[in-house]
Design brief:
This protein is α/β, with parallel strands linked by helices. The chain has 13 helices and 24 strands. It has a 4-stranded mixed sheet with strand order 2-16-18-17. It has a 4-stranded mixed sheet with strand order 4-5-3-14, covered by helices on one side. Strand 10, helix 6 and strand 11 form a beta-alpha-beta unit. The radius of gyration is 21 Å and the shape is globular. The structure holds shikimate-3-phosphate.
């Protein structure tokens, strides 16, 4: 297969959630261009409508309008967060500062994901939680006046960090958090700074001082680097051509995968770099490459946490054994991503295993053949769809529709980059 042409990718998922949440907390109307319109983004929009904001339908190519009231209103019904952990955890942070109770739930996958990692620090700030299903959803939060918090996080997680920062913002109290290993995505910090809040970094601590104010915004969301990674992966596995992926977010806490790919022998060039509303953006230029194995140490994982399935799939085509260290967090993503990546690589004839908290993948040149079980996990579906582009591959992904959780139109985009290259 050859690749070619220039493609865009849908808006950044993490930034879309945060912008929607913050716009709903502002008094007045915000305009959001390039917002992600995927199922996860729709979950945030739906929940925010239940909390009193007026959010226009999320439609590809149209400006999203969010009219907020300055505070949330008590919801009449249970808040259904669908498949979206980010919606749940960040909303819990904001709801912790509201004097009413709200119950959150989600789909089967989300109901099984741990919430104590969020409720523990938020309870220490003064919010009250009633568990209805142990360490998962449904969960009821009753917010109120909050206390300042200084918190050493047990794991590096942007969702834990953001829940605490947003609680500090909505409750107007100082908070400080420290991540144990590596730096997770910092979109919340950047957005809060844009609203005039002081978010300082010192000695690994991120401190928030509530001296800003959330105002209506007019913003353009960059393309999602995590979505771009799948198309970049397909281009790397191709045997000719060059692919441009235009206007993608280049936040250093998100593009750890490009540093790993460079070590594996695939250089992604950057062009048209600019800064857009406090976030670096630019075009990715990707060419096919012969890959070699690498070691991905624990400190690098937070900066590429969502790209491990794709990197593992690429590692299955590299010479030698690639090791991803300390990736236990993948067990509690939209699926048990750690076990399923290894299981599915084996199902298509590859060699991969989980050793403790590490994932080891051995490369091969044989055409991948077999059935892939995604458990409804969008990133698994897309990673293995990339593998299915190899010559001679016969990879059947059991559920491609779930890619709409983060990348509506992914199957078409994958076809488009191939078709364009035909002579
Ligand atoms: C996200 C943080 C990450 C990531 C998720 C989105 C965010 O989760 O896996 O897809 O937008 O804050 P963790 O914070 O649990 O690592």
């Amino acid at each position: 297969m050859r690749v070619g042409g220039s493609v865009g990718v849908p808006g950044d998922k993490s930034i879309t959630h945060r912008v929607l949440l913050l716009a709903a907390m502002a008094r007045g109307t915000s305009r959001i261009r390039g917002a992600l319109t995927s199922l996860d983004a729709k979950s945030s929009a739906r929940v925010l409508r239940q909390l009193g904001a007026v959010v226009s339908p999320l439609r590809e190519g149209s400006v999203t309008l969010v009219a907020g009231r300055g505070r949330f209103r008590r919801p009449a019904e249970v808040l259904n967060c669908g498949n979206s952990g980010t919606t749940t955890r960040l909303a819990l942070g904001l709801l912790s500062a509201h004097r009413f109770s709200a119950t959150l739930t989600g789909d089967r996958s989300l109901r099984g994901r741990p919430m104590r990692r969020i409720t523990k620090p938020l309870a220490a700030m003064g919010a009250r939680f009633t568990e209805r299903n142990g360490d998962g959803l449904p969960l009821t939060v009753e917010g109120g006046e909050l206390r300042p918090l200084r918190y050493e996080m047990p794991v590096s997680s942007a969702q834990i960090k953001s829940a605490i920062l947003l609680a500090g913002m909505a409750g107007e109290v100082e908070v400080a958090v420290r991540e144990p290993q590596g730096r997770s995505r910092d979109h919340t910090e950047r957005l809060l700074r844009a609203f005039g809040y002081r978010v300082l970094e010192h000695d690994g601590w991120i401190s928030f001082i509530p001296d800003g104010k959330v105002e209506p915004i007019d913003i353009a969301v960059p393309g999602d680097p995590s979505s771009a990674a799948f198309l970049a992966g397909a281009a790397i596995l191709a045997d000719g051509g060059e692919l441009r992926i235009a206007r993608v977010g280049l936040n250093p806490t998100r593009i750890g995968y490009s540093r790993v790919l460079a070590r594996m022998g695939a250089t992604i060039a950057l062009e048209n770099e600019a800064t857009q509303y406090g976030e670096p953006v630019g075009d990715l230029l990707v060419r096919p490459a012969r890959l070699i194995h690498t070691e991905v140490p624990a400190g690098e994982i937070p900066g590429l946490i969502d790209e491990v399935p794709l990197l593992a799939v690429l590692a299955s085509r590299a010479s030698g054994i690639t090791a991803f260290r300390q990736v236990g967090e993948l067990r509690i993503k939209e699926s048990n991503r750690l076990e399923l990546v290894a299981e599915n690589l084996r199902a298509v004839g590859g060699r991969a295993e989980v050793q403790g908290e590490d994932l080891l993948v051995e490369g091969s040149e044989a055409a991948p053949r077999g059935r892939v079980r995604t458990a409804g996990d969008h990133r698994l579906a897309m990673a293995f769809a990339v593998l299915s582009t190899l010559p001679g591959a016969r990879v059947q992904v059991d559920d491609m529709a779930c890619s709409a959780v983060s990348f509506p139109g992914f199957p078409g985009a994958l076809r488009q980059i191939r078709r364009k290259a035909r002579p």
